[in-house]
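lol ok so funny story. i was supposed to be doing the assay writeup but got distracted and ended up predicting the structure for this chain instead. priorities right. anyway since i did it might as well share w the group, maybe its usefull for someone
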Amino acid sequence: MKKFTAIVLCIVMIFSVFSICGYAENEKKFYLVLGDSIAYGSGISNSREACYGKIVSDTNGYDYANHSIPGHTTTNLINRLSNESVIADLKKADIISISIGGNDFLMSNLIGLMFDSIVLGDHTEYDKIAESFYTNFCEIIDIINSHNEDAVILMQTLYNPQSGYLRAPYQEGADRINAAINRYNSENPGEIVIVDVATALGDDMANYADDEIHPSAKGNEIIAETILDKLYELNLGSNAAPVIAAEGKDIEIPAIFTSSLRMVGFIFNAISVVYNFFAGIFA
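and the output, tada:
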């Protein structure tokens, strides 16, 4: 009788182990997106259904939350991480995607920065902003780790959506942000995983919305594919090919919006030609 009881207990234990393993395999991962308007999906009108975060979650069957806010800087994100609902999702997240940094430049006297860059060739303020970004980014990762040390943190590089005379000053900003991200990665190995969105989007204007700031529907799909490739590489995703549950709808921006910025770039370039001409004469 004792032998029979022991055999039954062994069988029960074996089935319990298999049940636990099966549950662990079937348990959904939680995917959390944090950051700015890029992460929010501001380049498309149906961002909730078609932004890259939603595409990634739909493709791999993740549970999903997106706490991104358009216009947010690194300082705003630090404050956002004290929100109770954000903290609750941080604690249960398996994967966290972050897009932040662009607004650290865009919200810091953009016209003045472009003037300094195009006319004077002076990037002192760029360097100050990049250093502030680095300090804030370190704090962001520390806060995340204080709530959840196990989540994989995916940090996206900053792309350049501009063409013409504005491309160079924008690139100065993007290069400094990306250098700061790489600096953090080298000084804190294993803390973040860099997702090279900048290279994936490149300089193809079809990847950007009419506002020439945010990714278009096509751009969101490219970002999703880039993230999915990385997750597949990390054995955190089952599929590297994006599943598009809802087609993104590109926003429509009046041409005067982008033409005004282009005009500023043209004027500053003209001033730089005159400035450099006279500077050469009186040097």
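The beta strands are 30-35, 63-66, 95-99, 152-156, 193-195. The two ends are 105 Å apart (CA to CA).
back to the writeup now i swear
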